[in-house]
Write a structure and sequence with these properties.
With 423 residues, this protein is an alpha/beta fold. The protein has 14 helices and 13 strands. It has a 7-stranded mixed beta sheet. A 4-stranded antiparallel beta sheet has the order 9-10-13-12.
């Protein structure tokens, strides 16, 4: 009797998440063969020795007995109230614990807030380059991701006028990722104000992904989007994963502000979806109040002499010294660099071919730029989490490979097929 193949859902046909895709699977294969791989494809602080603050671990231990049962679908009150207090301290008015939803990381909340909003064919404005989960979640929930350019020559900052021309009667929401993943851009206040006014005029829900909110360098100003959006609904998404180096805790939150009265039915829909998954990780929620109310140790990492600051400086110095690499300025925020390759020096350069060769030949794993829904193929993303010595080693290997390309262009049959553009 022949076996019939089990086909996956058609809804996944255009869903991509290449950061953990084929290249990452190949890296695991190489590791099982005994090779040491330097994995720079994911911003995972724990993998590079950056620990969660001890006070957060102690808070969970002290409340272990309170974590046996389910909690309210929106999350435990102390965690939600701590988020409210943080928002109030930043100048966000009118938020109570009722407008806060705790989720299993921001990733789960992105899916929930989009599922509650979108009908088939609805459009969501998403930056390009993007954090690809946003595009994937729009697609999974029946929508269409419309990418607005954040061009390298503009420091990866969007042009509000260009974005405005992409709005149609089907546009429901605007996604803003600031500080930005994958580029490290921190958007100027004037740009954010223009985006807020645009969303208000068009009646768009603003989804502001601010998971890197305290990771800014050299005096860059982080402006919370919720302080600027008043005449439409704004959802601020953040969590413990990055600033507090607690990715494995899986705790994120979505805070709704602005025109919440007009969004009663929408918020009820999110509450329904939250109920269907019962609740998020209860134990880790007990770390939220301590995290937000305690000493902000991230400042030690992003200031001069701090680990993230020095790693970022090492990346910029290595790119500046390279014959082949280009980066307009050092990233102003987050924990990544989105690095360009000069195609005048390397005609025909392909980011996926480069990423595969770098992995196979030099045992370094990076994320090719095409993974982030861009139309060009000469960028790649690395995380700045490793120490400076490791990054210096990485860039020496990158320079060796690119020098070999310049001497003998790589064969075209090494190209890894790229994901289809979503818009």
């Amino acid at each position: 009797m022949s076996e019939s193949p089990i086909r996956p859902s058609e809804s996944l046909r255009h869903v991509r998440y290449e950061i953990r895709g084929r290249l990452a699977h190949r890296a695991h294969e190489l590791e099982r063969q005994g090779y040491e791989i330097i994995s720079l494809n994911i911003g995972n602080p724990g993998a590079f020795g950056l620990r969660t603050p001890e006070t957060m671990r102690l808070a969970m231990i002290e409340n272990l007995a309170e974590a046996d049962g389910y909690c309210h679908q929106k999350g435990i009150f102390p965690a939600r109230e701590a988020v409210v207090m943080q928002q109030q301290a930043r100048g966000v008015a009118g938020v109570t614990a009722e407008e806060v939803f705790i989720g299993n990381g921001v990733s789960e909340l992105i899916n929930l807030v989009l599922r509650a909003l979108l009908d088939d064919g609805d459009e969501v404005l998403v930056p390009s380059p993007d954090y690809p989960l946003w595009s994937a979640a729009v697609t999974l929930n029946g929508g269409r991701a419309v990418h607005y350019p954040c061009r390298p020559q503009n420091g990866f900052v969007p042009d509000p006028d260009e974005l405005a021309r992409l709005i149609t009667p089907r546009t429901r929401a605007l996604v803003v990722i600031n500080p930005n993943n994958p580029t490290g851009a921190v958007y100027p206040r004037a740009v954010l104000e223009a985006l807020a006014r645009l969303a208000e005029r068009s009646g768009l829900v603003v989804f502001s992904d601010e998971i890197y909110d305290q990771m800014v360098y050299d005096g860059a100003e982080f402006v919370p989007m919720a302080t600027l959006v008043h005449e439409t609904l704004c959802a601020t998404l953040s969590g413990l994963s990055k600033v507090y180096r607690a990715c494995g805790y899986r705790v994120g939150w979505a805070v709704f502000s602005g025109q919440t009265r007009a969004a009663v039915d929408y918020l009820a829909a999110i509450d329904l979806l939250s109920s269907l998954r019962l609740c998020s990780n209860v134990l880790a929620q007990w770390a939220v109040q301590t995290a937000l109310g305690g000493y902000q140790s991230i400042q030690d990492l992003v200031g001069p002499g701090g680990r993230l600051y020095e790693s970022r400086r090492t990346i910029h110095a290595a790119v500046s010294a390279s014959r082949f690499l280009r980066l307009k300025e050092a990233p102003r925020g987050a924990m990544y660099a989105f690095i360009g390759v000069d195609t005048a020096e390397l005609p025909g350069f392909d980011d996926q071919r480069f990423a595969l060769d770098l992995l196979e030949q030099k045992h370094v794993l990076v994320a090719p730029g095409v993974s982030f829904n861009v139309p060009y193929r000469n960028h790649f993303r690395i995380t700045s989490l490793p120490d400076s010595a490791t990054l210096q080693k990485v860039f020496a290997r990158i320079e060796d490979l690119l020098s070999a390309y310049a001497a003998t262009p790589p064969a075209a049959d090494n190209v890894v097929p790229g994901p289809k553009r979503l818009a």
